[in-house]
Amino acid sequence: MTTPQEELLPATRRALLHRIAVAQAEGRTPSLVAAVVRGGHTVWHGARTSVDGHGPDENVQYRIGSITKTFTAVLVLRLRDEGLLDLGDPLEKHLPGTGAGEATIAELLAHSGGLAAESPAPWWERTPGSLRPELADVLGKQPLLHPAGRRHHYSNPGYTLLGALVEKLRGAPWEDVLRREVLEPLGLDRTTGRPRAPHAGGWAVHPWADVMLTEPAEDLGRMAPAGQLWSTTGDLARFAVFLARGDDRVLSAETVREMRAPAAAAEAADVLDGAAYGLGLQIQRWDGRLLVGHSGSLPGFLANLTISVEDDVAAVVLTNCTSGPLVAGVGADLVRIVAEAEPRIPEPWRPLPEVDTSVLELAGQWYWGTHAFALRLTTDGGVSLEPLSGNGRRSRFRANADGTWTGLEGYYAGELLRAARRPDGTVSHLDLGSFVFTRQPYDEGSPVPGGVDPEGWRGIG
C-alpha cells in the first residue's frame, strides 16, 4: 500500500508498465513481475503474463538463483561483526580440510579465491543435490584454478564453502540460520528454500518456435547457499531497502556500505564494462549511474535486484523462463525511468547545531603546491577536501578524538589529516599523509619539501 506522497506520477507508472510489457513480449517469457522501491517503500508493482486472468502479484514466488549469494554474504558479515572471524582469515582457520583453505573469507565473498566456476559434472543446476552430499563432491579433485586473490573468477562452489562456514560456526543448517538471523527480522516471510504456493512454474521457451517445456526444480543440497532460494517482488523490495540503508537487527548501515564497495580485482573486460564485485553484491556503471545488486538464474527462472543508492530507487524483476529478457537491463531501466522522471528531492538544508571554531578556521581554500583545494565542514562532524576545478584527489574525512581526521575514500582512504599549528596557536599548514597544504601556493611561512625559490614568483623578462 502506498501513500499519496509516495505514489508515482501516472506518466511514470505508464513508462514502467511499457518497459516490462516490452520485456515480456520481446523476451518471450511466460510471465514477468516487477516492483520499484523509492524512499524505503514499494511505490509500484507491475506484471505481464501469457495466461488469461489474474497475473502474478507481489506475493507469488519465483526462484531467484544467485541472489541467494547476497543472503549468504549477509550471514558471513554478521559473523565478522560479532568477532567470530576476520575477513582476512584463510578459510582453513575455520573450516579445515577443504583443499581450498588458502583462500581468505573476503576472497570467497568477492569471487577472487581462485576456485572453479562450477562443481564437477553432472551439471549441478539440473541434477539432485543428493549427488553431491559432501564438500569434496562440490569442489572436485582440483578446487583451485587460479592463485587466490589474483583475479575475479565467479565461483558457485565458493559460496557453498561460505554456507558450510556459516553452518560450522553457528552449529545449525544454513537455511535455519538464514531464517532466524535475516528473513524473520526483516519480515521476509515469503522467502524460502523450497517453493510455497502461490509460486510460478519454471519453463524453457523454444528458441525458434513459440512452444514451451517445463523445467525441473531441483533441491541443490550442498549448493543451496549459492542459489537455492525462492522469493517474491514484495520480499526482495524489502531486502533492497535493507541493502541500501542497513538494519541494526541484521547488519549496520556501515557494514552494508562495505558490502557495496568493490572488493575484487577487475578483469580488463570488466573495467571496460564498468563492472565490479563487492562482498556478495554486483556493482555496475549503467548509463552513468552506479548500480548495486545481483542477478540470478536457474533452469526456468531469471531474477534481478538493482539499487541506485544515490537516487534512492531500487527495482526487482522476476521471470519464469530459462532464457529470455535481459533482466539486469530491465532492472536498470526501471531505476532510470523513476530517477529521471521524478528526481530525488533533497532534504532541506539546515545549519549545523554547533561548530568548533578551531575547525571552522580551517574551512576554505588550500593549496597543494599550485593545485587549489577546498576544505569544507560536513554535517556528520567531519570534513571534506576536494579540488576546486577539474579532476583530482578528493575524500571525506572522519573526525578523531585527538583533533585529527581519517580519510574515508579514494587516494586518502585511511590517511591521517591534521592541522599543524605554530607556537602561538595559529595554523601553519595541513599535513595529509606527508603532503603539505598551505593557504597560498608554496607559502613562504610554511614548510614546503624542497624549499621555495628565494626570488619568489616572477615572469620571463
Describe the protein's architecture and organization.
This protein has 461 residues and is α+β, with helices and mostly antiparallel strands. It contains 13 helices and 19 strands. The protein has helices at 10-27, 67-81, 91-94, 105-109, 135-139, 156-170, 174-186, 224-227, 233-245, 253-259, 268-273, 327-341, 357-360; strands spanning 31-38, 41-49, 62-63, 203-205, 212-214, 230-231, 275-277, 282-286, 289-298, 301-308, 313-319, 364-368, 371-377, 383-387, 395-399, 405-407, 416-421, 427-432, 435-437. The protein has an 8-stranded antiparallel beta sheet, with no helix packed on it. Strand 18 (427-432) and strand 19 (435-437) form a beta hairpin. The longest helix has 18 residues, at 10-27. Residues 1-5 have low confidence and may be disordered.
Helix amount: 25-40%
Strand content: 15-25%
Largest sheet: 8 strands, antiparallel
Rg, alpha carbons:
26 Å
How many helices? 13
Report the strand count: 19
What layout of secondary structure does this protein have?
Elements: H1 10-27, E1 31-38, E2 41-49, E3 62-63, H2 67-81, H3 91-94, H4 105-109, H5 135-139, H6 156-170, H7 174-186, E4 203-205, E5 212-214, H8 224-227, E6 230-231, H9 233-245, H10 253-259, H11 268-273, E7 275-277, E8 282-286, E9 289-298, E10 301-308, E11 313-319, H12 327-341, H13 357-360, E12 364-368, E13 371-377, E14 383-387, E15 395-399, E16 405-407, E17 416-421, E18 427-432, E19 435-437
Antiparallel strand pairs: 1-2, 1-11, 3-6, 4-5, 7-8, 8-9, 9-10, 10-11, 12-13, 13-14, 14-15, 15-16, 16-17, 17-18, 18-19
